[in-house]
Amino acid sequence: MRIFITGGAGFIGCNLAAQHLQRGNCVTVFDNLSRQHTRHNLDWLQHDVQRAEGAALDFVRGDIRDFESLRTAMTRAQPDLIVHFAAQVAVTTSIKDPREDFEINALGTFNVLEAARAQATPPAVFYASTNKVYGGLEDQRVVLNGLRYGLPDLPEGVSEAQMLDFHSPYGCSKGIGDQYVRDYARIYGMRTVVFRQSCIYGEHQFGLEDQGWAAYFMIATVVNKPINIYGDGKQVRDLLHVSDLTAAYDAAWQRLDQVKGEVFNIGGGPANTLAIWAEFGPLLEQMTERKINVTYAAIRPGDQAVFISDNTKAMELLGWQPKVAVRDGLRSLWAWVNENRHLFDPSSATSAVSAVNTR
């Protein structure tokens, strides 16, 4: 199998690439390396991942905004499957620079689709969308139960039937890509699948304050960096370990003829939820064995009081469900953060902060 991964040096991309190399597949990583620590992930793929017989890794440094370089790389790779992760991933960044956000997420995704469609045999395209396409869920009743908010009318979580409500430039740009990918299956007969992902976490996640919150809280704790909580910390998210996410992508590939053109909500579901600080904070304090002080600020635009993914459709059509319990997965992430704490040390030359966040 030949797989082409945009943003393949990012958190999810490198995990998926490693999985395919271990299976003996040919992987092309297309990445502009603009995000902090993507070079570390690429080095890991190139030198540390055990490859099965027949496996090959090709790295192409490129930007999805450059259509010609993207199409050329794709033509050379001749992939069976494109998995599109490359993106501007933060709501806050999208508000500061909505034009760049649009060019990366909306135009970039259009470029990926058109480059795929231009191939002699168009490959399948899987798209990493987001729960932010549902906006703030203003049409749903939210209640506060002790330390956490809940959606009493959606006991299984938010399904694909929920009304789309793009909120924030990021929600709009990712939503545009979401709908383009879906429509290319209907209009051009391309084999596409959209995954509206909830909070994904796991090893090789270099979380930032405005994206990858679970990893960021752990990293900040290890390097004694101040932690800000936006809102009261009782907002609830379902968390999905990256290995469970890649298993969902596998399941879709194996059932591609049956699920092409489909959209799936993919998350930890009701069994893997935490309030982002009211519950996660005490869990982190148990792991670090000390009190963690935080400061609170106003909730940020586009934030959701609750998001829990209803995975029913994925269970029924993909035969998929999460296997990694959230507390087990978080302990594994905590161990990885501690093993690699030199990468997060503010005094280290390898941890210089990048102002660009495009994966």
Describe this protein's structure.
The chain is an alpha/beta fold and 359 residues long. The protein has one domain (87-351): Rossmann fold (3-Layer(aba) Sandwich). The chain is 38% helix and 18% strand. The chain has twelve helices and 15 strands. The protein has helices at residues 11-22, 38-47, 67-77, 91-96, 98-117, 168-187, 213-222, 242-254, 256-259, 280-288, 312-318, 326-339; strands at residues 2-6, 26-31, 56-61, 81-84, 124-130, 143-145, 148-150, 192-197, 199-201, 227-230, 236-241, 263-266, 273-275, 294-297, 306-307. The strands form four sheets. Strands 3-2-1-4-5-8-12 form a seven-stranded parallel beta sheet, with helices on both faces. Strands 9, 11, 13 and 15 form a four-stranded mixed beta sheet that branches. α1 (11-22) links the parallel β1 and β2. α1 (11-22) runs parallel beside α2. The longest helix has 20 residues, at 98-117. It starts with a strand and ends in a 20-residue tail after the last helix. Mean pLDDT is 94; it is low at 348-359.
List keywords for this structure.
single chain, 359 residues, alpha/beta, Rossmann fold, 7-stranded parallel β-sheet, 4-stranded mixed β-sheet, 12 helices, 18% strand, disordered C terminus
